[in-house]
Write a structure and sequence with these properties.
Layout (H helix, E strand, L loop, with lengths): L1 H22 L6 H24 L5 H42 L4 E2 L3 E3 L13 E3 L4 E2 L1 H37 L3 E8 L11 E5 L10 H12 L5 E5 L7 H8 L11 E4 L12 H9 L2 E3 L3 E7 L2 E7 L14 H5 L8 E4 L6 H5 L5 E4 L10 H8 L5 E5 L2 E5 L17 E8 L1
Parallel strand pairs: 5-16, 6-7, 7-8, 8-9, 11-12, 12-13, 13-15
Antiparallel strand pairs: 1-4, 2-3, 6-16, 10-11, 14-15
Helix pairs in contact: 1-2, 1-3, 2-3, 3-4
């Protein structure tokens, strides 16, 4: 059902773009046919990209498809926003045209030279009234409409390309380091100052390359954190496809280790997350699959727990909060790693002090942040939900288009305070 809905939505978007950018800006002829087939080709590229993404497509296939997806999205958004002002301007222009111009202009009588027509007298001129009216207002109206439609198309094109270009620079550049301090009322004073490097949604895939991983590892190591927390959606493919891209994770540095919990994308491959759990273990990253560990710091202990993503339910790997959080020592502070912010509602029932999450990308492409906010209790940043503090990182990578608008990539250095 999702695939059918997506295809229908994309078809509708392409029809709308054809209507606004091709049919309304051209006259019948070669140019209109060329632009029409161009849109058909772009639709085919987009479909091939999404089909290929399930089959380990190569980057040269993915780049044009995902970039067109972003351009298409912003073209539609800008054109829809311009519909109202365009309609108002068009109505005002039509009204002004009706006031200024008559309905038609008849040609004056024409003197026909002698012999120019059958039955004409020699040397005589006959005044013949024109029987064809020149429709000046209609032609003028058509010209104004065409100008307005072309101006609208130009504005939307420049706006979409400029926005996507800016978004690509943001997505492919260095993540922002976000310093965050969180006060936990029950925290043992000896744990004050404990620092977490939080990263999520790295999305290793055909567009990222090994340089993406190396940069993230280098930036995390520069933070000199006590704990590294990778909060899901590390990969978009199997170990066979992407194992080489993950190898730089072996160089992660922290005092008490690096920990990982699954995101929904870890369950998209046929192999499931099991092979990645094993691969990460070889790279020195421990996966917390409905379990917890003790972080001992300056003679005090913090419980660090992790639960599977909600997407694991279909694979028989549902998040199990009771297993991960049950039987804890009373009074001990607990930090939970859970990919989706919405999981905080269950965490609250188990007395968690702080939840670290990702998943949302901060919306990734504005105004998607408004849509994400309908599904998740927090889109990005620190908030309190049902009495539990939850920090949602925007993620260090991207999914789909290599574009981020209004939500730059992020690595968080989070410090606990008592």
């Amino acid at each position: 059902m999702f695939v059918l809905f997506f295809v229908a939505l994309v078809l509708l978007a392409h029809w709308y773009l054809w209507f606004r950018l091709v049919r309304r800006t051209t006259v019948p002829g070669r140019l209109r046919k060329t632009l029409t087939w161009g849109l058909v080709a772009l639709f085919a590229v987009l479909v091939a990209t999404f089909v290929g993404s399930r089959m380990g497509l190569e980057s040269w296939v993915a780049w044009p498809g995902f970039i067109w997806l972003a351009v298409m999205f912003y073209l539609v958004v800008i054109l829809v926003v311009l519909e109202v002002p365009r309609a108002v301007v068009a109505a005002l222009v039509r009204r002004a045209g009706r006031r200024r111009e008559p309905q038609s202009v008849a040609a004056p009588p024409v003197a026909v030279p002698a012999g120019a027509g059958a039955g004409a007298g020699a040397g005589a001129g006959v005044g013949v009234p024109a029987d064809v009216a020149v429709d000046v207002p209609v032609a003028s109206s058509m010209s104004r409409r065409l100008f307005l439609d072309r101006a609208t198309a130009a504005v939307s094109g420049v706006g979409a390309l400029g926005t996507v270009g800016y978004g690509m620079v943001s997505a492919l550049g260095d993540p922002v380091i976000e310093p965050v301090k969180v006060t936990l009322p029950k925290l043992d004073s000896r744990l004050a100052g404990l620092r977490f490097a939080v990263v999520s949604d790295i999305h290793l895939g055909p567009l990222t390359g090994i340089g993406h991983t190396e940069r993230i590892v280098r930036m995390i190591n520069g933070l000199e954190a006590d704990v590294v927390a990778i909060v899901g959606d590390l990969v978009d493919g199997s170990v066979a496809q992407l194992g080489a891209l993950a190898r730089p994770l072996k160089s992660l540095e922290s005092r008490y280790g690096a920990y990982f919990v699954t995101g929904n994308h870890e369950y998209f491959t046929a192999e499931g997350p099991g092979e990645w759990v094993e691969e990460l273990a070889e790279l020195g990253v421990r996966s917390l699959r409905n379990e917890r560990v003790e972080i001992r710091h300056q003679g005090a202990v913090l419980d660090l727990a992790g639960v599977n993503d909600i997407g694991g339910a279909a694979a028989g790997e549902s998040p199990d909060f009771a297993k991960a959080l049950g039987g804890r020592e009373p009074g001990r502070s607990t930090v939970l790693l859970a990919h989706q912010p919405i999981q905080v509602k269950e965490a609250a029932r188990h007395g968690v002090d702080l939840q670290l999450s990702g998943h949302t990308h901060g919306g990734q492409i504005a105004p998607f942040d408004l849509v994400v906010g309908l599904q998740q209790p927090v889109v990005s940043g620190l908030a309190t939900v049902d009495g539990v503090q939850v920090y949602v990182t925007r993620g260090a990578g991207f999914w789909g288009p290599p574009v981020r608008v209004g939500a730059p990539p992020e690595i968080t250095i989070l410090e606990l305070r008592g």
